[in-house]
Each structure stands twice: as C-alpha cells, then as structure tokens.
Amino acid sequence: MTTAVLRTAHVPDAGIVEGPRVLHRLPAGAESRPYELFGVRPLSRVIGAEIEGVDLADPLTGALRAELNRALLEWKVLFFRDQDITSTQQRAFARHWGELETNPLLPAGDSAEVTRFSRDASMPAFENIWHTDVTFRPRPAFGSVLRLVKVPPFGGDTMWADLAAAYDNLPAGIRARITGLRAVHDFVPGFARFSDPGFLERRRHEFPPVEHPVVRTHPETGRATLFVNPSFTTHIVGLDRAESDELLRLLFAQAHVPEYQVRFRWTENAVAFWDNRATQHYAVNDYAPEVRIAERVAIAGDRPF
C-alpha cells in the first residue's frame, strides 16, 4: 500500500508519513546497561542483535539465562552464529523459557515439538507474509527458536518488525481510537493458501476463532505493542466491515516501515530467538529452486491483555 493511498483513507489522522520517526528500543524510563556474560552486536536501532560468546550446546546457568532474557526483551530478536547443535539441544535451550508447544497444522521434525520447514521448487514457501505466530490460539506463543539446517546460496533471509516501535509511531488519533478495541484471529485465512478445504474443516473445531486486544501490553516490559497481523487477523469487533478493513490495512502497514525492522542473512547453523509477543516476521521467498531447511521450536505463551 502506498503512502498516497493511506493519506486518502477515511480514517481520522491516518497516514504513514515521511520524516523522523520515534525509535525507542527500551521502555520509557529504562536505562541501557552493559552485558557481562556475552557480546552484543546490534543490527538496527531498535530490533535485532547478534550474540557473541554463547554456545547453545552448553546448559545455561541461571545468570546467563537471566542476561539473555534481558537481551531478548531489549532487542526482541537475538541471533547466534555457528551453533552446531542437535534438535535435542535446541529444545533444551528453548525450555529455559517455558513449556514447548506443538503445532499439528505444520510438518513435524524428529519430535512433535519441532516444526521442520524444508522448501525447494517442488514445495513452495508460504511464510512470505508479515505475521505473528499462532495468534489464532487463545495463548499465542511466547517466542520461537529457529535453526537453519541448510542455507541456500542466496536469498532466504528473514525479517522482523518491532511492534512497539510501530505502535509508538501511529498518529495520536489512531492510538486513541484503537485503545480498548479487540480483533478476531482465525487460522483459516493463513492456512487456506496451501491447505485443502477438508483439512481446514477437520481442524476448525480444534482452533476456533479467538479475540485478542488490538493493542497488547507486553507482560514483562509493559510496552504497548500492536497485536494484529494480515495472516490471521480477520476483523475488529464492533466495527462494520468497511471500517474494520480500512483500519486494519493501516495497522498492518505499520510493520512494513523499514526503520522498525531488521533483516537477517542466514548462514548454516545460525539460530534466531525472537519474542513473539513484540514482533512480526517475514520469510523472504526468493531462493527457488535452491533448498532451504529450517527447524523451529516454539515456547508456549500466555493470554494477551
């Protein structure tokens, strides 16, 4: 959607405009502190950092887990290079943040807790849409740990967007308007692109549509974050369809602004760990007919408020 289209929308005080943007990495009043147990190399102003000096094959101490959690809250997505780990070790790392969830809608790896994405020209990817994982569940995932097993010679990057920065830069009138609103999330629109109708019908009783707040309060940082995404959010409760669609188009477009994003170029055995409560992501589908294989472990989350 272009800026010109947004500026002519019938939403009061709407529009993504050019010029300076508010780019706060930390919540109001928080101060940046040094890290003592590893190095941090920022990849953008507000989101994404490479962690240096941590071997994910080793068990985490309480101190290391606490410092990594602080880094996750501050940078929203952490990257670890050259991690020659097994699927078992990947799951062990993720369990430091909670119970692992399963996703019967996606292909499993060597465990029901591992989702395996193996893509080539015969099996096209459908993750190239901005989305937050499993928001169609009453308790969407806390976060995910993704490991690249096979990297194509070019392409296949993943992008993440900071939804707190996206919220901060909404016009004041829009922030006021969406406060207290709720939206419906449904797995069907996101999976209909690559699933047969019978599969969708069989799974609908397991995953009925749910409502979540349009603006989520992050349970650890307290920051307001946008919590709608074009893959699973269908409409805003209490608005007529035209008004809901128009407002959602504007909110979806906030994740598209480059200043709120980080783009990661994968290397073999690189790992990404992201906060699903504060981000959207987009897997760039530009590598066919080359092969890209990834394994993801998701950590169960809580009910958005």
How would you describe this structure to a colleague?
The protein is an alpha+beta fold. The chain has a single domain, classed as Clavaminate synthase-like (Double-stranded beta-helix, 4-Layer Sandwich), CATH 3.60.130.10. Helices cover 22% and strands 24% of the residues. It has eight helices and 16 strands. The strands form four sheets. Strands 1, 2, 3, 4, 5, 6, 14 and 16 form an eight-stranded mixed β-sheet that branches. Strands 13-7-15 form a three-stranded antiparallel β-sheet. The chain is globular and about 50 Å long. The two termini are 29 Å apart. The N terminus is likely disordered.
Helix share of residues? 10-25%
The CATH topology corresponds to: Double-stranded beta-helix
Spans where pLDDT lies below 50 across 5 or more residues: 1-13
Please give the largest β-sheet: 8 strands, mixed
- The SSE string, one letter per element, is HEEHEHEEEEHHEHHEEEEHEEEE
Named CATH architecture? 4-Layer Sandwich
What is the global morphology? Answer: globular
Mean pLDDT figure: 90
How many strand elements? 16
Class by SSE composition:
alpha+beta
Q: Report strand %.
A: 15-25%
The CATH H-level homologous superfamily: Clavaminate synthase-like
Tally the structural domains.
Answer: 1
Task: Give the CATH level 1 class.
Answer: Alpha Beta
End-to-end separation in angstroms reads 29 Å
Radius of gyration: 19 Å
Summarize the structure.
This protein is an alpha+beta fold. The protein has helices at residues 3-7, 62-75, 87-94, 163-168, 172-178, 187-191, 197-204, 241-253; strands at 39-42, 49-52, 77-80, 100-101, 114-119, 143-150, 158-162, 182-185, 210-213, 215-217, 224-226, 233-236, 261-264, 271-275, 279-283, 292-299.
